[in-house]
Amino acid sequence: MSDTTAASSAPSAQEERRFILGGLNVEQLRSLSGQRCHTVLDGRYVTILEHRGRIYALDSPCYHAAGPLGEGPVVDIEDIPCIRCPWHQFLVALDTGEEITRKAKPPNFTDDANQVFQPPTYPMQPPSEDSFVGPAVRGGKAVQRIHRTELEEGTGDIIVYLQGVDVIKHRPVRSDVNACHQRGAMSMQIRDIKQRGLE
Ligand code: FES
Fold first, then answer.
1. CB under 6 Å to ligand 1: residues?
2. Ligand 1 centroid from CA 65, angstroms
3. Ordered DSSP codes for the chain
4. What sections of the sequence does the record tag as coiled-coil (predicted)?
5. Which residue from 28, 39, 107, 106 is spatially nearest to 70, judged by alpha carbons?
């Protein structure tokens, strides 16, 4: 987690809230595990990561079932930068927060004549590229909230803007609930503990 500094004067309910990730610039972000950091901004769990020269900030817990989306691998699906949730493999576009779907190939039958289904093995593995047919499709509306970022002039420190509380209230996104809830925090921590081998 990074030290954060909130904006100096209190914004109105409509205004963006500005957070400087004190001392965290792009170089330092790249040097962290997974080239990302997780932090809490105004009670909201947010992940900041760099991908192909662009800084993204998104709600850390997944909109679907509060899985640790922020810890997932970043992948380019066709030309769409995405993050893949480690729990159920859902894809989220990093630029818009939309769900990205692709049509899967028909299920795998061990016995074609009798249509015996081969269930997936556990733990589930990310589907391989040849598991899909057809192009990637954007969901059309954000399900995961993406936060605006920029770099502080002079220091290069990363700045994250959270939308105003009124804006969030009147234009909710599915990830809002988990991003500010204990269950989202729990899933991020469990994932982090496992990755560090401390379980
Ligand atoms: S929790 Fe199900 S896809 Fe993320």
1. 62, 64-65, 67, 69, 85, 87-88, 90
2. 5
3. ---EEE-SSPPPSSS-EEEEETT--HHHHHHSGGGEEEEEETTEEEEEEEETTEEEEEESS-TTTS--GGGSPEEEETTEEEEE-TTT--EEETTT-EEEEEEEPPPPEEETTTTEE-PPPSSPPPPPGGGEEEEEEEEEEESS-EEEEEE-TTT--EEEEEPPHHHHHHS--THHHHHTSHHHHHHHHHHHHHHTT--
4. none
5. 39
At 89-123, the pLDDT tens digits run 899 999 999 999 988 777 666 766 776 776 767 76
Residue whose CB lies within 8 A of the most ligand 1 atoms, among 45, 59, 64, 183, for a mutation test: 64
How far, in Å, is the centroid of ligand 1 from the Cα of 179? 13
Structure tokens, 55: 């800084």
- What is 4-192's CATH topology? Rieske Iron-sulfur Protein (2.102.10)
Q: Which residues of the chain have pLDDT under 50?
A: 199
